[in-house]
UniProtKB/TrEMBL annotation:
InterPro entries: LemA-like_dom_sf, MamQ_LemA. One of its GO terms (cellular component) is membrane. Keywords: Membrane, Transmembrane, Transmembrane helix. It is a single-pass membrane protein. This is LemA family protein. It is found in: Membrane. Gene3D superfamilies: LemA-like domain. The keyword Calcium does not apply.
Length: 186
């Protein structure tokens, strides 16, 4: 009789560990999803700002068609990207194209002095800072989640419950390209 109680006690303890691990991993997974949604909101705001910025630049630098087309192509690619890895890669291309677009203002003093351009550039700068903050929050949530699925006792149950490692939202190999000063050639 006493061995039956011991076995039952062990089964109950294991079930409690499994339920606890599952609930913690669900919470961590939801946090990652929410953090990615926060990034998505900021990126959508940036995507909405870009056409106005391009139109403003177009009035002053219409012969810079290649740069303007690159920005629009990169924006469209970023808007259709799915998942952190694709979104990260597409947004990195868009950041580079936007850097070249903003650099055009140095070559066009009238554009640089335009109040509309200054406001749009300021909004873009503010959005870039918000995106960076959202990216840091997302990466923190992913790190916590990935650690959670690898720690005991959750590691014993994570694979069984379908919890898999998530990717970071990182600049990756293109970090040097994004941090590089844009080159404007005429």
């Amino acid at each position: 009789m006493s061995t039956g109680w011991i076995v039952l006690g062990v089964i109950v303890v294991l079930a409690l560990f499994a339920f606890s691990a599952y609930n913690r991993l669900v919470a961590l997974s939801q946090r990652v999803g929410q953090a990615f949604a926060d990034i998505d909101v900021q990126l959508k705001q940036r995507h909405d700002l870009i056409p106005n910025l391009v139109e403003t630049v177009k009035g002053y630098a219409s012969h810079e068609r290649g740069t303007l087309d690159d920005v629009i192509k990169a924006r469209n690619s970023a808007m259709s990207a799915q998942g952190p890895a694709q979104v990260s890669a597409a947004e990195n291309q868009l950041s580079g194209a936007l850097g070249r677009l903003i650099a055009l203002s140095e070559a066009y003093p009238d554009l640089k002095a335009n109040a509309n351009f200054q406001q749009l550039a300021s909004e873009l700068s503010d959005l870039e800072n918000k995106i960076a903050a959202s990216r840091r929050f997302f990466n923190s949530a992913v790190q916590e989640y990935n650690t959670g699925i690898q720690q005991l006792p959750a590691a014993l149950f994570a694979g069984m419950f379908g919890f898999t490692k998530k990717d970071f939202f990182d600049l990756g190999a293109s970090r040097t390209e994004v941090e590089a000063v844009p080159q404007v050639k005429f």
